[in-house]
Amino acid sequence: MENNDQLELQSIKTKRVFEEICLQIRGLLASGNLSTGDKLPPERDLAIRFNVSRPAVREALRSLEISGIIELKTGAKGGAFIRDGSSGLLTRSMQDLLLLGSLSSDGLLEARELIHEIVVRLACERGEEADWLAIEKNIREIEKLGSSKEELPARVKAGFMFFRLIAQATHNEVLVILIESLSDIVRAMIDQTGAVARPELVAVRWRLLKYLRARDPRKAMKEMSGFLGVVHKGLSVEPAPPRARARAAATSAKAPAARTPRAKSGARTGGLFDAESDK
Q: Domain 11-82 belongs to what topology?
């Protein structure tokens, strides 16, 4: 996009200036007028159009970068770019909650098992031959990898890709992100406790694929449950700090917060924002 002068921004008058800037940028994302890869106007231009100081803009950009909304690049073609969405931010947030004691490893593993049940059921309903072929290719790759220490990292990586491919067979991007995030956390837990090759699970993978192809959710979920039981056995993290445990105990009786309804993205109308292009 060439002309970012068309970006409609409002003067900031609140005390927490950088938060208001972040809200406006997020609003443009929600409306579809900003999308992945778009470049924000230069810091100087943003300060003029927001009617704020450059340090306030700088603070807002840092906040958006930490949140995973933008990526700050340096150099001749640098600037603030809207990032491609991924599961990384969700993974980091849950890992922090684990460290703070707000989440337990047992709760996380249980949630992973429950979400995989949903994934298996939907994969049985929606999976296509292309999905099954991708899973089959993944299993053959795992079979070719040995159990040596040198090949273990590649085997673990391929093993977790197996779960992602099943999630992709649901054709639901939210479930794919959830599975990716939970898998990343479990993979870190396995790294802490010591990863070991489990060649006996290859047969389970083949049976699971067989039942997915046959669209038999009951048998497929049984295989997945047994599979995860083996993988999750013995996984744990460091105990939560005493203060965090006390806080968790004090809030455990409270009702869970209501889920925020999923907002529908508006159509990308153009005119409100046109970022520079570095093509």
A: Arc Repressor Mutant, subunit A (1.10.10)
